[in-house]
């Protein structure tokens, strides 16, 4: 096609992905489960440049260098290898999510890039193959290929080709209308990348193995609760899984702490809401922001309370769609 455009949305994990058993292939230790959001999409255009001798990346209007350029080029190399082609490309990407804020811009970014690049280089991939490809860019991107609730299988480490066994797929039997209320406490870049923080956690936290074991049980219970439409059960498992992940980081050496006193204030308020009888549970990623999980019917009430106590930007996100092509204009 020479040129292709794709759009993808971020996702927030309710059972977290934290820690890689294979860094190169981006194979995780545990299965994870997320909700793809309907806010903050990333739009990415890939155009092949037969005469260029290097890839070019333009992110939100600025020429990318350093880590963003390096990761994008490495990803394009992988696509070229799969397609058996050599042309370089220009990648133009537009985020609507505050970068580095723990709102998973790498998930929407690599899901959109995987779809656009595959198309531009003439690869025709099935959904699971596309998810596996997106995974190589950023683990959480494997899940943003799909909409709604999504499970990412860690895969079988003993399989002849473990790469083939680790992909995401939609949870088709979920009967729950849930929203995530994002409390944007800080939209700045994070001090420690999630890549580095994961590495440190796996290598040094005495709690890590236990959290992985718990995550397996959490996932099975959450799938049942999703099928039953049991909001409270889904919420309790999600909050506990997220707090457990942060506990593994706190006990790494050197410790990684993404949560701030402002995050703690929000966590306290979420508990207060529960005491008042409102079903609300917290989840946090590699940053200070807190996302409050609740039934969609309660989302505006929860958001109003969060605005009142924090005074910061609060965004209500509902279930959103998977990655899709956009026609080139
Ligand atoms: C805390 O997918 O950003 O958001 O694979 O190294 O690119 P890399 O990491 P990334 O990590 C996401 C971690 C998390 C939890 C999650 O989304 O499951």
UniProtKB/TrEMBL annotation:
Top enzyme class = lyase
Looking up Gene3D superfamilies in the UniProt record yields: 3.30.230.10, GHMP kinase, C-terminal domain
Annotated keywords:
ATP-binding, Lipid biosynthesis, Lipid metabolism, Lyase, Nucleotide-binding
Please give the superkingdom of this protein's source: Bacteria
Which GO terms fall under molecular function for this chain's record?
Answer: ATP binding; diphosphomevalonate decarboxylase activity
- Supply one GO BP term: isopentenyl diphosphate biosynthetic process, mevalonate pathway
Domain spans labelled Mvd1 C-terminal: 183-309
Q: Which InterPro entries match?
A: GHMP_kinase_C_sf, Mev_decarb, Mev_diP_decarb, MVD-like_N, Mvd1_C, Ribosomal_Su5_D2-typ_SF, Ribsml_uS5_D2-typ_fold_subgr
Cellular component terms per the entry's GO annotation: cytosol
Is Lipid biosynthesis found in the keyword set? yes
* EC number(s) per entry: 4.1.1.33
Q: Where is the Diphosphomevalonate decarboxylase-like N-terminal domain?
A: 8-157
The record, for PANTHER family, names: DIPHOSPHOMEVALONATE DECARBOXYLASE
Q: Which family does it belong to?
A: Belongs to the diphosphomevalonate decarboxylase family.
Indicate what this protein is called per its UniProt record: diphosphomevalonate decarboxylase
């Amino acid at each position: 096609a020479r040129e292709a455009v794709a759009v993808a949305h971020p996702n927030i994990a309710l059972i977290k992905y934290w820690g890689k058993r294979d860094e190169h292939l981006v194979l995780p230790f545990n299965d994870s489960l997320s909700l793809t959001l309907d806010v903050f999409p990333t739009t990415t255009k890939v155009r092949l440049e037969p005469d260029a001798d290097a890839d070019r990346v333009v992110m939100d209007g600025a020429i990318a260098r350093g880590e963003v350029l390096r990761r994008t080029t490495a990803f394009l190399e992988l696509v070229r290898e799969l397609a058996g082609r050599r042309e370089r490309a220009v990648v133009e990407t537009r985020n609507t999510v505050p970068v580095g804020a723990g709102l998973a811009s790498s998930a929407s970014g690599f899901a959109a890039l995987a779809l656009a690049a595959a198309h531009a280089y003439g690869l025709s991939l099935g959904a699971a193959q596309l998810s596996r490809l997106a995974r190589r860019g950023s683990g959480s991107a494997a899940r943003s290929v799909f909409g709604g609730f999504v499970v990412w299988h860690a895969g079988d480490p003993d399989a002849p080709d473990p790469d083939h066994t680790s992909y995401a797929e939609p949870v088709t039997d979920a009967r729950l209308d849930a929203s995530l209320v994002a409390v944007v406490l800080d939209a700045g870049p994070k001090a420690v990348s999630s890549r580095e923080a994961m590495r440190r956690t796996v290598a040094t936290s005495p709690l890590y193995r236990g959290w992985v074991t718990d995550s397996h049980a959490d996932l099975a219970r959450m799938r049942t609760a999703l099928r039953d439409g049991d909001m409270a059960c889904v919420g309790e498992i999600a909050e506990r899984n997220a707090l457990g992940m942060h506990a593994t980081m706190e006990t790494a050496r050197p410790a990684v702490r993404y949560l701030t006193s402002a995050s703690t204030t929000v966590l306290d308020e979420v508990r207060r809401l529960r005491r008042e009888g409102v079903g609300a549970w917290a989840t946090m990623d590699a940053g200070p922001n807190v996302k409050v999980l609740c039934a969609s019917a309660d989302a505006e009430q929860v958001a109003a309370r969060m605005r009142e106590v924090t005074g910061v930007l609060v965004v209500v996100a509902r279930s959103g769609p998977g990655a899709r092509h956009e026609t080139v204009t």
